[in-house]
Write a structure and sequence with these properties.
GO molecular function, one term: acetyl-CoA carboxylase activity
InterPro entries: ACC_epsilon
Largest sheet: none
Protein name: Acyl-CoA carboxylase epsilon subunit
Radius of gyration: 28 Å
Strand content: under 5%
Helix content: 25-40%
Number of strands: 0
Distance between the termini: 73 Å
Number of helices: 3
Length: about 70
């Protein structure tokens, strides 16, 4: 029979069951590898609300042109 060494131990104090559960939860979350997901492209609806910065130029009619669809 092999005896496994504990992953962690409490060295001071007497934690409650809730405190130990919170500690185990934090350790479990922190030990998982981070999954990197590719960013999702912006939808047409989202892009429509953003001004095309490169297309806007200062001058006559700039304010009116900023509200027109591209």
């Amino acid at each position: 029979m092999s005896v496994e060494e504990p992953l962690f131990r409490v060295v001071r104090g007497v934690p409650t069951a809730e405190e130990l559960a919170a500690l185990v939860g934090v350790i479990a979350v922190r030990s998982r590898p981070t999954v990197r997901r590719a960013p999702t492209p912006a939808s047409a609806w989202t892009r429509s609300g953003r001004p095309a910065v490169a297309a806007l130029t200062p001058g006559a009619g700039a304010w009116r042109n900023s509200g027109l669809p591209r």
